Known about the structure:
The structure holds two protein chains of two kinds. Chain A is α/β, with parallel strands linked by helices. Helices cover 38% and strands 28% of the residues of chain A. By secondary structure, chain B is α+β, with helices and mostly antiparallel strands. Chain B contains 16 helices and 15 strands. Chain B: It holds the Pfam family MacB_PCD. Chain B: It is found in: Cell membrane.
Amino acid sequence: MLSVTDVVKTFNSGDRTIKPVNGVSFTLEQGTFAAILGKSGSGKSTLLSLLGALDKASSGDVVVDEVNISKLPDRKLTAYRRDDIGFVFQQYNLIPNLSALENVMLPMEFAGVRHGERSKRAAELLNQVELTEEMHGRKANRLSGGMQQRVAIARALANNPKLILADEPTGNLDDETGELIIALLRQLAHEKKTTILVVTHDHALASQTDRKFRLARGKLTED
Amino acid sequence: MGVVSRSVGNAFRNKVRSGAVVVILAVAIGLALAMLVANQAVGAKVDSLKASVGNNLTVNPAGSRGGLGGGNPLTAADATKAAAVAHVTSVNGTLSVRLANSAATSTTTATPGAGQGADRGGPGGGFGSSGTTSLKSAVDPGVLGQRNNSNSGATGGSTGGSTTTRPAFTIPIQATGVSTSTTATGAAIKVTSGAQLTDFAANSTQALVGTTLATKNSLKVGSTFTVQSRTMTVTGIFDAGDAFDNNGIYLPLAATQTLTSQAGQLSSLNVVVDNIENVSATQAALTASLGATNVDVTAGSSGLQSAISSLGSVQSISLIAFIASLVTAGLIVLLIMIMVVRERRREIGVLKAIGAANRTIGVQFVLEAMVLVVMGTVVGAVVAAFSSNPIVSALVAGNTGSTAAAAGPVQGAGGGGGFGGGFGGGGFTRTRGAFSGASQLIGTISTSVGWQTLVLGAVGILVIAAIGALIPSLLTAKVRPIEVLRGE
Lengths: 223, 488
Ligand SMILES: Nc1ncnc2c1ncn2[C@@H]1O[C@H](COP(=O)(O)OP(=O)(O)OP(=O)(O)O)[C@@H](O)[C@H]1O
Ligand SMILES: [Mg+2]
């Protein structure tokens, strides 16, 4: 389902060049729940942004369901991000002046889902991540970090993507809520056959995944 | 929650800044609207001036004006020549004669000498012979009448060889022979009851009588009076707006020429030029064609040309100011949107990352700019409501003063009440009257400016604002999401 071949990402900072991702190759079957582990600054977020088409690899190919996204034009990339990918940012990146519900509705708006259906599904998703009804209408910048993280997860699920890329999805959650999110992701992978790749430091989460990768010095190895 | 409500929400996100932007926009847009009003008001003024001045030239025998001066009468041949001059669209000859009261004449003819004065030298002379009429003048001779007529009377008297105590006389009546329903200066004759002349034949018995003259002689439409030996019928009563002209009559030109034995003679030609810009060139051409020694060609508009051109420059200045304020409004929106987009780079990155198309992002910022512009326009309209009246007064009323001053001598020299009525502009006074009252602003602008202009201006502002919002937002949306997500 996901096939990554010899991906390199080079950054030029001043006179030095850094290669946080330096020849990464791996494949994931549909419905796999996988984790990437690695030290801070090892390039995990960088790799994820390449897979989510937020950034372009310096070289190498990322193929999702036979489509090489490294070669897609801008318009097709928009559709890819909207329909195929659910991205959970390490910093959540909610739109601060929109409510939790409105944030979750956004990807569906871009996909052309009717308003009534949007708000209905958004409410369902927020309930799934256990955000209480009274929080649905609250502006994102008035929510706690953990709440924002759950809204970000709900938003990533909005358009039923086939690949979910989540950067530290449990980083700000208590154990109990973390367990809930892990269970939710597992269920999505195993019952709905969604492919899920998470970046995590959380051992509880890592232990629940089907496959575990480690990123170090630009290379990815499987445990 | 769609892109529209999101944009409206965003427009109010930073309330202090949005408020400031709306105020600045309001000033610029208000100024633009006020300038538009000023531009249109001045334009209307120029048009009314042009219309009231007309494209007319008056040809008189050299050294003669109306009943004064001397020289040889114009002829039908002169009219034909004038018509052949370039840019001349029509030539209309008239013959003015002065008719003495027949009763007074018969009284005075009994007195030797004085009769000749009334008949020959006449009051002011005119061209060749005058005639008599049964009408009595509605104007008392007064000091001026006594002086004017006693002078010629004295001349007549001395020719007659004796001075006698003259009986009270009535001053002669001006009769103008016309071949269309226009005055000697080309203005339409304003008939207040009855109808215009229709029979312009030499044996016509139709006549138009001035209001005061009709009252003095108890004439109504259908009444009769005599000119020389012919009985004329009043077809209409006209109001020229002043006592001198209302003490006159209009007769068919051919009948006037026949009755006063001045066949083929004309006292003045009214020449209509195709365009007001060609008036002075045609004036020179006419003088050359008819001979400077034979005719005087005068332009009613010569002095007003400068007034019109100075008003014209006010018009173009206000147009430039209108455009400049619009551009200013557009620049304000552009700069503010550049700021707003910079501030929300990260948000644009998020929107792109979760699947927003560049178009969606562009639309969102354009709508946000529209909200600011619409609010600015509403406040600006109120600003304009209060500022357009003083601005228009300052621009036009001040200019009207100088125009009137410039027009004054022209009116005298031009020898016509021709633009008396139109001057000071009925239309303009009405327009200005309507300016008072802020609530009427939109109505006033739309009527005086026209919906097309208003819509054009609104579309102009919106287009500038749209471009101002599109450029920065699309430039930002074009880059990869990660670059804007990471921020500076
Ligand atoms: N735009 C950039 N320009 C230059 N260097 C960058 C850029 N983005 C990331 N880096 C560098 O690449 C390396 C990997 O960063 P990345 O954010 O991928 O780490 P990470 O594994 O996600 O770390 P963490 O676990 O702390 O989130 C870091 O050394 C970082 O400084
Ligand atoms: Mg990271």
